[in-house]
Write a structure and sequence with these properties.
Number of helices: 6
CATH topology of the domain at 3-125: Methane Monooxygenase Hydroxylase, Chain G, domain 1
Number of strands: 0
Order of helices and strands: HHHHHH
CATH class of the domain at 3-125: Mainly Alpha
Radius of gyration: 54 Å
Length: 262
């Protein structure tokens, strides 16, 4: 039985994943040594770098799991787990060093291909071509190359001019958009002011309407009171409580004189 599995299934699983990555790295570097194309070597190194990055992550997980199991394991088991982790780190560092070596060789090869390879062939070709030409052919060839250079310069000038024109148009468009945004902001300010003014006017109208309603309600109560008094007076004309109200008091009784003629 795997001793790591006896301690923790997570540790055993991580150990298996790390072992798979180490096998893939070994096969990958062996394959890299057989590749001659610089671009393919670069892609292969990128793939190997991704695998090493994943391996580093797994080793960190392994270390965290070891620290979590430290309290429930004895000293010998903990020592064995640390030695296993150190072994993983050591093997990963060896692949990192191998990757740096291949990366350095790859950069040197690219530098040689860029500066040495094309210039040699081009120089030899020009020497052979010039040695087989007459003076007139050389002059014609020089004139032709000068014409091509002038045309290339003209094209470059045209590109620069087009770029300047595009930049000018872009600046004008940005200026127009900026002015438009300023107008929009001013309009929004005006709208906001109008809304505040309208809100204030609505509040004033609301207060005036409320005042009018109170007055109408008071007048209504007065009218109701007057009607009630009239009804009460008609029903009970002798009611003393409303005798003194103008227009509603009962008619005065005929007074008798103390002395009446015979």
């Amino acid at each position: 039985m795997d001793p790591l599995a006896a301690v923790s299934e997570e540790l055993a699983e991580i150990d298996g994943q790390v072992a798979d990555i180490f096998r893939a790295l070994s096969n990958g570097f062996q394959k890299l040594e057989k590749i001659k194309d610089v671009n393919r070597q670069s892609r292969q190194l990128e793939e190997l770098t991704d695998k090493m990055r994943e391996c580093k992550r797994l080793i960190k997980e392994f270390d965290r799991e070891v620290k979590e199991t430290e309290r429930r394991t004895d000293a010998n088991t903990h020592k064995m787990l640390n030695e296993k982790k150190q072994s993983m780190v050591k093997e990963l560092n060896s692949y990192v060093a191998l990757k740096k070596q291949h990366q350095s060789n790859l950069e040197n090869n690219k530098r040689v291909d860029l500066f040495d390879g094309p210039s040699e062939g081009f120089g030899e070709e020009n020497v052979l071509l010039a040695s087989s030409m007459t003076n007139q052919q050389l002059i014609d060839r020089g004139n032709h190359m000068m014409n091509e250079t002038d045309q290339a310069i003209d094209r470059a000038k045209k590109v620069v001019q087009d770029t300047v024109d595009v930049g000018t148009e872009t600046a004008a468009a940005l200026k127009a958009q900026t002015e438009q945004m300023s107008r929009i902001v001013n309009e929004l300010d005006s709208i906001h002011f109008s809304i505040k003014k309208a809100s204030k006017l609505v509040k004033e109208i609301g207060r005036q309407v409320a005042t009018d309603k109170c007055i109408m309600a008071l007048l209504f109560l007065i009218v109701i009171g007057v009607i009630a008094i009239i009804i009460v007076k008609l029903v009970n004309p002798n009611n003393k409580d409303i005798r003194d109200i103008p227009g509603l008091a009962p008619p005065a009784m005929n007074r008798r004189l103390l002395w009446t003629p015979n």
